[in-house]
Amino acid sequence: MTDTSDELAGNLDFWEQAAASHGTKESDPHYRFDVVVAGGSLMTRMEERAVADATGSPRDDPLAGVRGRDVLYLQSHLGADGVVMARAGARVTCADFSPTALRRVRELAEAAGVDVETVETDSRALPESLHGRFDLVYVTVGAICWIDDLGLWMRQVALALRAGGRLVMVEIHPAYQMVEKRVPDLVVDFPYGGGTGLTETGTGDYADPESTITSTTTCYAHSVADMVNGAIRAGMRVDRLEEHVVSEINPRGDDVLQQGEDGLWRLLVGRGKDEGDAPEPMPVYLTLIATRT
Ligand SMILES: C[S@@+](CC[C@H](N)C(=O)[O-])C[C@H]1O[C@@H](n2cnc3c(N)ncnc32)[C@H](O)[C@@H]1O
Questions:
Q1: For residue 279, what pLDDT is reported?
Q2: Would the CB of 141 count as within 6 Å of ligand 1?
Q3: Residue 198: inside a domain, yes or no?
Q4: Does some domain include residue 183?
Q5: 77 lines ligand 1 (CB under 6 A)
Q6: Residue 269 lies in a domain
Q7: Best mutation site among 14, 15, 222 for ligand 1, i.e. most ligand atoms within 8 A of its Cβ?
Q8: In what helix (H) or strand (E) does residue 288 lie, and over which residues does it extend?
């Protein structure tokens, strides 16, 4: 790691602790590795559709197009989706700055009986060994908020792709990221874009309500325009931007999203136009697909 800023060190400390504990306790429902080892997947429909659309696969066989492709799973954390793509026939490299996360990736890959390469790196400075090698760079939920310079990060993505290769990114929508809690009062405490950082000290972890992890972390705000313009300036063509107003996942507890009778989660703020009307849901996730030209 070349950057030894306090912010980066605080974030790495949190992710080292999270990587050691995720998927090891009953109270953490998000990292169900038994499902992956048994041949299943933890990918959401949003993520599967994004990969299907980026690879030209049918949506009912979303990973068909990764067979024989080189996939970089950037900021892979424990790498479950990488293992699933490797099982579907991709050559997968998981990259993360957390050595503990990458050890867990290797353990999961071994338990699932697939090969996955791991590379320890700051995603703002990918090593030359990763340049020009990949058909897909896959990034999902909760990755770019840890990055101060999104333009630099996008340039690393473009460097990793071969010409014609694609970035597939499913991310938290910046409008949702702004909301700290919805009840009893709406609290909006995170800026909308511009790369502004917010440093917080506390105990807890998005995946585990009983977590005792104590950390000082810094997250950075990136707007939709920051993402799209960052990709364009890095030399990529933006093929698709989708904003999702419903979600299958709710990693942040019941204070923000509400679950409907259909089991899906929505960000419902205020009220509808007429008394008794539910408000329209606000965007919660987005998909960005861009091609290195
Ligand atoms: C919320 S996780 C991403 C979620 C992951 N896709 C999953 O499904 O579990 C964020 C990841 O970003 C990694 N990370 C944060 N900052 C990083 C940086 N500057 N360089 C490389 N990895 C970083 C963390 O170690 C962590 O594994």
A1: 94
A2: yes
A3: yes
A4: no
A5: yes
A6: no
A7: 15
A8: strand 285-292
pLDDT tier at 243, thresholds 50, 70, 90? very high
Residue 9 CA to ligand 1 centre (angstroms): 13
Q: Is 28 in the pocket of ligand 1 (CB under 6 A)?
A: no
For residue 262, the CA-to-ligand 1 centroid distance in Å is: 30
pLDDT of residue 204: 84
14-24: pLDDT as tens digits: 999 999 999 88
Residue 197 lies in a domain: yes
CB-based burial label for 187 (10 Å; 0-12, 13-18, 19+): middle
98 pocket-lining for ligand 1 (C-beta < 6 Å):
yes
- Across the strands, what pairs with 62? none
Quote the domain boundaries for residue 69: 6-175+193-247+287-292
Amino acid at 133: R
Q: Is the CB of 36 under 6 A from ligand 1?
A: no
- The count of domains in the chain is 1
> What CATH number does residue 112 fall under?
3.40.50.150
Ligand 1 pocket, 118 CB below 6 A?
Answer: no
CB atoms inside a 10 Å sphere around CB 243: 13
Q: Is the CB of 142 under 6 A from ligand 1?
A: yes
Residue 278 burial (CB count, 10 A) = 12
State both tokens at 175: 């409008």
Give yes or no for a contact between 211 and 220, defined as CB atoms under 8 angstroms apart.
no
